[in-house]
Amino acid sequence: MKQPQSNIAIIGIGTAVPPYLVDQADTARRLTDALIDKPDSARWGRRIFKQCGVQSRYTCEPNLLAEAAECRYLPSSSADKAPSTAERMGIYKRESVPLALQAARQALADGEVDPADVTHLITVSCTGQFLPGLDAALVHQLGLPPAITRIPLNFLGCAAGLKAIGLSRQIVLSDTAAQVLIVCVELCTLHIQPSGDKESLFAASFFGDGASACLVGSTKPHVKPIFTLGQERSILLPDCADEMVWEVGNHGFDLYLSPSIPKLIGEHIPPEVELLCGDEEPELWAIHPGGKGIIDILQNKFELTDEQISHSLGVLRDYGNVSSATILFVLNAMRQHLHESGSEAVTGIALAFGPGLTAEMIKIAYVPASLAGDEQRKTDGAYV
User: Fold this and answer.
1) Which of 18, 29, 148, 276 would give a disulfide with 60, using CB separation of 3.0 to 4.6 Å?
2) Percentage of the chain lying above the pLDDT 70 cut
3) 352 near 327, Cβ under 8 Å?
């Protein structure tokens, strides 16, 4: 692969999860207890919970760990006991800010950037809203400049985290002094529905809660490895508007995921990747784990090795799908592995998908710490 040339990079990453671990096998057991009067739904639920590729995830809501009779989110004879949308949004407001702060502080420390030097703040979430919003809370509690440019990306779904990274690259491309802080926080489990239908059970099987953050800016001498950012591409796939639907309901947000999504991604994404990458063959594949079926079909279409998809599958296994925050979990795991294995510079691609169907993709390159410093010294020398 070609030596990475970009001077724009993800220079710091942070992740955070809430304290309550959701064990997949235990959740399937409690779900089966809740569906005791609906044996067909119980059988289908057990199967999808076992096959979706998740072993554990995290939630901000301790009631989701309760037995079936006490859990307000699981199916029951009376839906009236389920939390209303207003109650769920109250939990979101209370729990989202501490998680976002934890991830953001990690990213700032990892990137060795002072909060006062951040010029842009992009906040990303599709699982809750309140005003004044997450952006205002982060400015006050992180000590960011009051005049910082704030860009909330709300209700865009799983692809929004990568959309924010592409937008950040464009900002730094136009202003090399810009330091962009991206903070994604998603509390997906707040929207588990008290229903035994297949759509609700499928959505309940693999979403988790968490936050991630990153800093995007010009490369500089760095003691940690970084991902440089190349050209991005965003595409709204044709005739797919009804395949992924996310609407506000009386008991949280109602999500519909078509079983055709992996097939549609397999049909439409390969030519889009070719348009972005040309003759280059990416070695790194940071695939948003929107579901095991999506990873499987992309592995098949691009003839990827098990190692190339291991980070996406590992994040899905350990955290579930954390919507917009997930892609940074994948990149963080990939960076750690490449660093520990002593990898040289290597190029790749990051991909994420969301309602629309929308596909976001961007060229990336892993650069070891020594090379990151060398590249900056060459740039400084050229200016001198």
Assistant:
1) 18
2) 93
3) yes
